[in-house]
Design a protein that fits this description.
Number of helices: 17
Largest sheet: none
Structural class: mainly alpha
Strand content: under 5%
Order of helices and strands: HHHHHHHHHHHHHHHHH
Shape: globular
Length: about 350
């Protein structure tokens, strides 16, 4: 009797679009692993991401609003789940590989910093190596997330989708392209919802030129955009949108940058968060011995993934770059709450007690 995995792979060839990514045609992993008898390669990747520590930490990381006083604002975890839901809906309708789509979606923001894009900006500003969360997500799955001495060892297709989910990215698979769009669809719409909840904007503030095309509520806008992608992309070798809907969506995104993402009422605490990150970075670069052991080992051994043409650096310069990258890795992995606690621990004086 064929394994359950082989049955699933056969069904993929029977049911999926010819433009889908078939599990048994994967480009594979960097380190060979014997196939599972139950799960396809992309199902294994999805499970590894869900069971990772980096995935669990997303629940404590900011989406847009820092430490919101309410239970219903999105965080990085709920954003990720909404991206996965939207992406799977599109992939299923287009007969693409849902498992690959879901794995990419669940892993796309693993590298996000505490305090959202404020933390990302701070590390990018202060580190000689720079910092980008999509690149950090790849560092996590290829290097930092270790279990029983082994990295996650994800397939090349999943890593490609994670790396290229940003606006300027060019995923190789249609599944990766679906996630790239689903990410924008999710954050534009749920950030509107959160901004309305936080009294930053109202539904009536959204320009008519966008709502007349996309709709006047969260559900209407999601429905319009998803239907547009599915109808435009069905049986096509690409993921497409009509010009009208694409223009309205990108216009709505620009409106959000102007009205919410740079609004002092919504973002008034971000400068404090950036300063906190930068001061912690400086402290740990100067006191690298205070880092956890795995990051000290990283400094000693290096990883070859954060600088080019290593032979051009002196030993001191190379050690400085390794230290900065290890500090970035450590800080980027923190949740908001943990970052505040560590900042207090290392930089705020404690009361002296004779007892």
């Amino acid at each position: 009797m064929d394994s359950i995995r082989k049955q699933q792979e056969a069904r993929e060839h029977e049911n999926l679009s010819p433009y889908a990514s078939f599990s048994d045609c994967s480009m594979g992993r960097d380190e060979y692993e014997a196939p599972c008898d139950i799960r396809t390669e992309y199902q294994r990747d999805r499970d590894r991401i869900i069971h990772s520590k980096a995935f669990r930490r997303l629940n404590g990381k900011t989406q847009v609003f820092l430490a919101p006083m309410g239970d219903h604002y999105r965080n990085r975890m709920t954003h990720t789940l909404e991206v996965a839901q939207i992406a799977r809906t599109i992939a299923k309708a287009l007969r693409l590989n849902e498992d690959l789509t879901e794995a990419i979606a669940l892993g796309h923001d693993l590298g996000h910093t505490p305090f959202g894009h404020a933390g990302e900006r701070a590390l990018n500003d202060i580190s000689s190596c720079g910092f980008a969360h999509h690149e950090q997500s790849i560092r996590i799955v290829e290097l930092l997330e270790v279990k029983k001495g082994k990295t996650m060892n994800l397939t090349k297709e999943v890593r490609d989708g994670i790396l290229n989910h940003q606006t300027q990215g060019h995923p190789r698979t249609l599944e990766g392209k679906v996630v790239r769009l689903a990410d924008k669809i999710a954050y534009i719409n749920h950030d509107i919802d959160d901004a309305i909840r936080g009294h930053i904007i109202t539904e009536q503030d959204i320009p008519d030129e966008f709502t007349e095309v996309l709709g006047h509520s969260l559900s209407e806008r999601l429905n319009t955009i998803i239907h547009d992608i599915v109808s435009s992309s069905y049986e096509q070798p690409d993921i497409l949108m009509t010009d009208a809907v694409f223009k309205a969506m990108t216009g709505l995104r620009s409106y959000m940058f102007k009205s919410v993402y740079t609004n002092p009422a919504a973002k008034g605490q971000e400068k404090k968060a950036e300063q906190l990150i930068k001061e912690m970075f400086t402290y740990y670069v100067e006191h690298a011995d205070a880092l956890p052991d795995e990051f000290l080992n990283q400094i000693e051994k290096g990883d070859g993934k954060c600088y080019n043409e290593i032979h051009l650096y002196s030993d001191n310069e190379l050690r400085k770059l390794r230290t900065e990258k290890a500090v970035c890795d450590y800080i980027a992995g923190m949740t908001d709450r943990y970052a505040v606690a560590k900042f207090h621990d290392i930089l705020i004086p404690s009361n002296w007690d004779v007892y």
